[in-house]
Amino acid sequence: MDHFARLFKSGEARIVVLEEGRLGKEIYKVRGTPTIMLADGKKLRHPMAYPNIENGKILSVGMLPCCGEGCYEATRALFEQPLKYEQNMISQELK
Description:
The chain has three helices and four strands; from the N terminus they run ααββββα. The protein has helices at residues 2-10, 12-28, 72-94; strands spanning 36-37, 43-44, 51-54, 57-61. The mean pLDDT is 83.
């Protein structure tokens, strides 16, 4: 914890985090967090209700595709995608 506190106080971590945020916005078009991406840049999206925005104002919000425990399977499937992607990449390298 001392190491973390020292880095936090030094400002080094802030610089690195801000740079990573800049890269995410400029290169990968990340608009918010958490944004989960595969190594190839594919964004993985959790099922959620997205707003319909016009001229900077929210006009409506779509229906939630799931809620509460009903979202567990969707969340699990979301995080399994990068694991499958990594396994496929390793399999291709071994060929």
